[in-house]
Design brief:
single chain, about 0% strand, mainly alpha
Length: about 150
């Protein structure tokens, strides 16, 4: 950028001594009409109303998103449960066929059923603990001083 010509004289009659960063002490003060209190209150109520409407819209959108996620989670969970069931049947048949030559068909079936019942009991116990965790998280009285149910 070219520097200004040093030989150019300063403008005559222009003085910036009275102006400092937008404040003009010699200028007429800028006064505005006072805003009535009812107008201020109306603006506050309108802003609060708009904020409340936005919060409700956000809560509704979050609910719809949660419903969408829960629906697809349940659908894919059902697919996974069906696949697991078929896999457990195949595993049970395979275990019975593998044990039958060594123990006999009836004892092999009893062993496989007992093992599957043990697995089911363990899974049910874990599910119950997880359910209790959910109940604890959703309890209104976290110190358990009153009855929630």
């Amino acid at each position: 950028m070219a520097s200004p010509d040093p030989e150019t004289p300063a403008p005559v009659g222009r003085s910036f001594d009275g102006i400092s960063h937008g404040y003009a002490p010699d200028a007429r003060p800028a006064t505005s009409e006072p805003v009535p209190l009812d107008q201020i209150a109306r603006d506050v109520v309108e802003n609060l109303s708009a904020t409340a409407k936005a919060e409700l819209a956000l809560i509704e959108a979050r609910g719809e998103l949660a419903l969408h996620g829960a629906t697809w989670s349940a659908a894919w969970g059902a697919v996974a449960a069906c696949a697991l069931g078929v896999a457990m049947l195949a595993l049970a048949f395979g275990a019975i066929l593998a044990l039958a030559p060594h123990t006999g068909a009836l004892l092999a079936t009893i062993i496989v059923v007992a093992v599957l019942l043990l697995i089911a009991a363990l899974a049910g116990w874990r599910a119950r603990r997880a359910y209790d965790d959910i109940r604890t998280a959703l309890r209104r009285d976290l110190v358990n001083e009153g009855v929630d149910d």
